[in-house]
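Risk mitigation, structural track. In case the binding assays with F58 fail to produce interpretable data, a predicted complex structure has been prepared as a fallback.
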Amino acid sequence: MNIFQETENKMTKEKFKRDFKKKVEELSSEKLENSTTKFQYEALAQMVMENINPIWAENRRLNRINTDKQIYFFSIEFLIGRLLRLYINNLGWEDIVPDGLEELGLDYDNILACEHDPALGNGGLGRLMACFLDSAAALDFPAHGNGIRYKYGLFQQKIVNHEQVEVADNWLKHGYPFEIRQPEKSVVVKYGGNVRTEMVNGKLTFIHENYEPVLAVPYDVPVSGYHNKTVNSLRLWDAQPVDDFDLNAFNEGHFLKAVQSKSQAESISQVLYPSDHGFEGQLLRLKQEYFFVCAGLKRIVRRYKKQHQGSLDGFSDKICIHINDTHPAMCVPEFMRILVDEENYGWDEAWDMTVKSMSFTNHTVLPEALEKWPVDMMQNLLPRIYMIIEEINRRFLEEMNGKYPNEEARNYNISIIKDGQVHMAHLAIIGSHSVNGVAELHSKILREETFKDFYAIYPERFHNVTNGVSQRRFMMAANQELKNLICDTIGDKWTQPGQMEALKDLEKYASDSDFQKQLQGVKYHNKERLAKYIKEHLNVTVNPHSIFDIQVKRIHEYKRQLLNALHIMHVYNQLCANPNADFVPKTYIFAGKAAPSYYFAKQVIKLINVIADKINHDPLTKDKLSVVFIPNFNVSSAELIYPAAEISEQISTAGKEASGTGNMKFMMNGAVTLGTMDGANIEIAEHVGMDNIYTFGLSAEEVANYNHNGGYHSVDVLQQNPDLQKVMNQLIDGSLGGDTFHTIYDALVLNNDTYFVLKDFASYCDIQDQSSRDYLNHHSWQKKSIMNIANSGIFSSDRSIAEYQKDIWKIK
Ligand code: F58
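Fallback model:
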């Protein structure tokens, strides 16, 4: 029994069964037993919304009258995943619904599978936002999301002839039951045109004219808290033409023009950019960035004024605008525009309010990913915003040159506008009171390298908040058997929001052979479940008694799926050379999408699939070695994959992965990390202890040292390692069924291996061997697994949110 269930509208199994049956029959005009799974899903979704809506309405009413501080996450991505099961668990119906459906002769998992998984994000950054919203609601904080309702989410990935093929993700085709359209809250966003000045009542006034208006229509999705009465909102904006009346234009010329402008407006929220690497300076992307910034701020400002007798005074004491990476950095000039142009604040006061309201999180140190917009593009698309950025920059440089007259080079470096480009990270840092990285090492690199000039000026602004993930989704819901086992062993305190560190009590059972056996049983079931999925989807048989060694994440050179693949080739070579040698059976599992324009990453996908095909069809490897690439990695398949893992591959080039969050999801499901000392792996190592993690390879410092001296000589490494030579030759000599991988070979051998794959190869092979040997000792392996679960509490996003609250937003 939970608090939520003690309330008046208590749901019982019998009531649920009655209501559900009635709802299905109303919707489908069929008896329950003749209804389709699709109608059953719709009925369940409607029942859930009918129960959430009154609580949501009450939350909205309270938020309107009370003046507690509100947090708004501005993010270009929210990778929310399927929501139905989460809502059911949050409502406290997690026992009622599955049992009730079973008694009605229905399968809960089949019904849940009808929900189209909304893919409104590329990877870690978007998923982090979803975990943060989940945690904030669980902890009763008023924190809301503000983003874009893309019509097409991240493409669906198919593998055809070993290669990635992208298919459009029309996730709204059959409607989405968890959103509420709010047309009366629509606002206009203005693009292009020109800005004219005029004296109005003795004040210089900026008038934006000849612009193209676009209507931003909000759709709200409820974000419910776990077993509590909090329901926050995720607001996603849809772009529409301002006036559909234009479409009725009476002559053909006008009609075509009107239709054109309709599709131009709609194109803004048409598609999520599928690139997680490198900055793409497309005009449409800039339009998207301003779109949700402008629309979101307008509503927040309007709401605040309504609550405060038409004034924005005191705004920064009550509102936090959190800028998630640089994509929403235009919050800074847009809020200045509202304050100065529309609300008549003086510049200095407006600037003070802006900086106090904004906080900024950086998610990458890859230089190619840092956003820089061409000045003329921004000036043409957003003329007034550009003027304000210029003025912010002018005043900033004036201050810096005054304070640090001898730091000319530095003052130039930190400029927002330089070399014909607007540097968005600089804008975000200068315009925010807080800047944070997402793991200790990452924050250190920001302070000492990426943003060192800013750190010298504003040391007090720099923070670290190590990422976290939602245990409610990635462990309690995805791995219910593990959750139950832990609750039976140490109680359920750890399942309460903010209490996950109580898992530490499990350490007492680390060497308990009874508990170890039960844990091993849970893992085995999860491996069987994944093996079944692999058989059904790929027609590949994997041995559930083999070690499940898994790397799932976006495909990127710095994440080094290639290192994993080269090692598998080496293992296969060994097996071929010595078929009767002792061998610990192993299944290597990969999943992840490559950006459609990222040729190298797509070659890596092809290589993995080619290797998999060869190995899985060789009778020599049967039951010993298999390789699987699971297509279309998304939040739903992730929920199946993490619980089945025994080894979590986190092998990025040290210094490149800001944090990683998959590492945390694996850990809380009992997988042991095999990784480099990078991102949050370092903190995982600190918490589990070096006996319970496998680390290898260069440190971030060593990588940086090589890079400062122009890199290293990959050919030297190759010359000293005949096994590696053999593998590299196989990439180009036709051994792989006639396929050759010259691009990969050239990057590693001729172009000096930017990501240190060959350099780390030998130490990776050693640690792989060691982990396989260790696996044979079940007792010590289970102990490692338990130590990982027991120490995963700190990697809950509840902890991250509590830190943001204490150090950055300072909510009481
Ligand atoms: C990721 N960034 C980091 N960006 O790579 C990862 O280390 C970190 O754990 C995670 O953020 C959360 O902090 C990331 O996912 C993107 O996908 C961007 C999306 C928008 C376009 C540019 C890439």
